[in-house]
Specification:
Strand content: 5-15%
Shape: elongated
Number of strands: 5
Number of helices: 14
Structural class: alpha/beta
Distance between the termini: 20 Å
Largest sheet: 5 strands, parallel
Helix content: 40-55%
């Protein structure tokens, strides 16, 4: 970290004048063990799956929208397609359980422990494949009707927090809908009795297939020393699980933005991550991560391409 900061301090600018851009580069240098990390190629992994808890009336949209939106991703017409093209990121959409939902968490566990482990392994493999193909920065996103309820249940169990403190409108619920969501999360906690001491058990009881896969992507990024840019509340819940499994994974995490969902601020506070953006985004899909990726790449571009005082023949007043 000190070597990366010294490299920035030699650039033609006052010390620390690039603020959080310098902090970003320093964190990435520490993660990768190099003084000047390269400006990376980037990809965005969007994991999609259906949720049995949708039967509890916790979403403003019917469950078939998950599959319809995945088709929209494939056709290139969704918001994340537009933003991925705009920022020059490869978009990877992973079907983690579309049309084959988890069980209803309000009535029992979402999946078996082995199913959760399999999804984590698939996420690790996806990250490793991207890194092997030259990707050095990975954003993560999600798609799944009902998944804010699953995310809220995970957060309630792991923070811990009251269901009402982590349940918000998602993609458009009214007050009655939010109350149904909080009630579903309360029942899920009661019937599953998952404890924070067993994060894999919490994930199996309350999570979604796509959340479990994203946990694996994050763990895989840390293993490969590649930074991972988080999106909103759903990826935040996955990050909370990943950090409970392996605390060092937080070293690889960059919070792309802060979602208006009430639980997201609590998650970021627990992980000690300061979001780069706050644009009131509540779409998911990795859109907040996509918008933050140019900021991360810009920080590294400045470190790599900006002239030093000696190179430019400029007097360094800080010496």
């Amino acid at each position: 970290m000190s070597e990366t900061q010294r490299a920035f301090d030699r650039k033609t600018k006052p010390r620390g004048s690039l603020g959080r851009l310098e902090d970003l580069a320093v964190r990435i240098g520490a993660l990768q063990g190099v003084a000047v990390p390269a400006r990376p190629e980037c990809a965005i992994v969007v994991a999609a799956a259906d949720h049995g808890v949708a039967a509890e009336g916790v979403s403003a949209y019917p469950q078939e929208v998950t599959a319809q939106m995945v088709a929209n991703f494939a056709a290139g017409g969704a918001a994340i397609n537009v933003l991925a093209r705009e920022v020059g990121a490869r978009l990877v959409v992973v079907d983690a359980g579309v049309g084959a939902p988890t069980a209803n968490i309000a009535r029992g566990p979402a999946m078996t422990r082995s199913a959760a482990e399999a999804q984590i392994a698939a996420g690790r493999a996806a990250a490793a494949e991207l890194v092997a193909d030259g990707i050095g920065l990975i954003g993560v996103g999600d798609m799944g009707i009902g998944n804010t309820t699953s995310a809220a249940a995970l957060c309630a169990a792991l923070l811990p927090a009251a269901p009402g403190a982590v349940c918000g409108p998602g993609t458009g619920l009214d007050a009655d809908g939010v109350a149904r969501k909080a009630a579903a999360v309360t029942r899920a906690l009661e019937v599953n009795r998952a404890t924070a001491a067993d994060p894999l058990g919490v994930l199996a009881a309350l999570g979604g297939f796509e959340i479990a896969l994203l946990v694996g992507v994050m763990l895989g990024c840390r293993e490969a020393r590649v930074p991972v840019v988080l999106d909103g509340f759903i990826t935040g819940a996955a990050a909370l699980v990943a950090a409970a499994i392996e605390p060092a994974v937080v070293d690889a995490m960059i919070a792309g933005h802060r979602s208006p969902e009430p639980g997201h601020a609590l998650v970021l506070e627990r992980l000690r991550l300061e979001p780069l953006l706050d644009l009131r985004l509540r779409l998911g899909e990795g859109t907040g991560a996509a918008l933050a990726i140019p900021i991360v790449r810009s920080a590294l571009a400045l470190l790599n391409e900006m002239a030093s005082f000696d190179d430019a023949g400029v007097t360094d007043a800080g010496r």
